[in-house]
Amino acid sequence: MSESEFDIIRKYFTEIGKASDWLVMGIGDDAAIIAPSSEHQLLISIDTLNLGVHFPGQCAAIDIGYKALAVNLSDIAAMGGEPKWFTLSLSLPSIDHNWLKDFCLGLSQLASKHNLKLVGGDTTRGPLSITIQIAGETPAKEVIKRDGAKVGDSIYVTGTLGDAAAGLALCAQNEDRNSYREALVDKLNKPIPRIAVGMALRSLATACIDISDGLAGDLGHILEDSGVGAELEQDAIPFSDELLEYAEKNELTSFLELSLYGGDDYELCFTAAEKSHEAIEKVGIEEDCKITRIGKIISDNGLYLVEDNDTTEINITGFDHFNT
Amino acid sequence: MSESEFDIIRKYFTEIGKASDWLVMGIGDDAAIIAPSSEHQLLISIDTLNLGVHFPGQCAAIDIGYKALAVNLSDIAAMGGEPKWFTLSLSLPSIDHNWLKDFCLGLSQLASKHNLKLVGGDTTRGPLSITIQIAGETPAKEVIKRDGAKVGDSIYVTGTLGDAAAGLALCAQNEDRNSYREALVDKLNKPIPRIAVGMALRSLATACIDISDGLAGDLGHILEDSGVGAELEQDAIPFSDELLEYAEKNELTSFLELSLYGGDDYELCFTAAEKSHEAIEKVGIEEDCKITRIGKIISDNGLYLVEDNDTTEINITGFDHFNT
């Protein structure tokens, strides 16, 4: 007799992640039971990864498991949240135990690292697709939204930008492995959700978003929701050594565009008052995360790029799965 | 310029359902913000419907929207929960506005009826697939689980069984429309989540499950989790007039199997102590829902079917998407 959906759930999913006394009952009934804390607000987000759209066929199962959870954690990070639990819906064309084992390993590693627990799931037949809904918490009124950016605020980003887009381009090429390829493909497959930085920014950031669709589009959401504009210092946008090497070797002059319009970096973009600058530098040091000031919020609507003394208005258009 | 994911979300999804003051912020940021009640426990469940697996290509968008939410509501009903909010992840091969409009109408109708609110979502490109994660509430310790069935308890089901399986068979046939076809296909496409009954059973039922994979398999989960067995009175299993008519016209002698092993009925199967029988009959009358006592819990493991004086042990095997 072949294994049923229930056997798969039991075998692979019941032990993923960690919980504490907020979990009354996890996987195994019609619904999980959770005892929420009245001092906290719940943050809820859902994201899907589809084969051929969000990851290529040759992507390793462990990386798919990792990334499916990482992109959801990134949404919680962008709100200043502490992750608590998640549910998983997994559509599979058939049961492949090696694939499931590796996929769950990728999920588990990240779930354990961030102390969150898989509390429920659905496993069904269909084209390979992974949907995760995640829940995090913040103390009431400490959540960071998109609509709080004020004129005069500085604009910051974590990490470096454009790496994941370069990694995606490298995945499509048959280029030999080299020093930068691995690092850039790793940034695509294993983005680091900035949970600790997001939590540390609760009392500092006026607005925050995670960069999933390119800096221009995602900063654009902050600008639109806050009713402001922004000037970016082109030379301040942080690039990795590997991206610069990749750009040089491939005579790529437009690598700035990878940061502005390329997807999948999952770094945070946030705004903060000038007076918070020192505290923000301290967060970067304490959390061992590069944080770079890249511009400022202005009252004129629109997004402007400043290079030397030239100011150019640029498009606010993020990556759109339906228009690619 | 074609419409982006953000335009679609704004146009179709922000107004679905109803919320009250527990919703701090809905669709539009990295995560929704919810203020949970400390007097209640949260019930969390996730379910996916895939084209070609859970519904056929000719299924109307309004029915797909309805059913995607109904199957999730049914999980909340089975725990005695009151539905509060849900998130939606929708994978679409392309943007079809008529389809989206109808899909959202199906969702909205059911969401409004049960006072729940769509608080977040993800819309992306991929083979047609709908994942909903739903959250409900019960007062702490009033949740109905699967593991509480006791020897001597009566076994009940709501509604009639086997209709959805017959509806599925009829969908695959090119038979002319007739009196029973519409009713049976309706049971397949528009199952009624038994929310009010589930809530009324909180203090009465010892165990409860919704019948998504056939009575035998789903009652089997109660038996396994409770460490007991069951005897079902074959003649007591409730069938609709339409199913009996369908069976007669198609000379179908095995329609009992449709109830035991056919999926998608989404009725409740629950157990309760003998002393609660009158109260349960009252719930059926007050909620205008047929509730039928179909057997009893016994100490011997296994599921037995009793007809006249014959007792036969039957297989506990639910519908399994990977083994069909």
TrEMBL record, chains A, B:
Keywords: Kinase, Transferase
Domain PurM-like C-terminal, first and last residues per copy: 150-305
Residues forming coiled coils: none
EC number: 2.7.4.16
Every PurM-like N-terminal domain range: 28-136
Cited Pfam families: AIRS, AIRS_C
GO biological process, one term: thiamine biosynthetic process
Keyword rRNA-binding attributed: no
GO terms, molecular function: thiamine-phosphate kinase activity
InterPro entries, sorted: PurM-like_C_dom (IPR010918), PurM-like_C_sf (IPR036676), PurM-like_N (IPR016188), PurM-like_N_sf (IPR036921), ThiL-like (IPR006283)
PANTHER family in alphabetical order: THIAMINE-MONOPHOSPHATE KINASE
Protein's UniProt name: Thiamine-monophosphate kinase
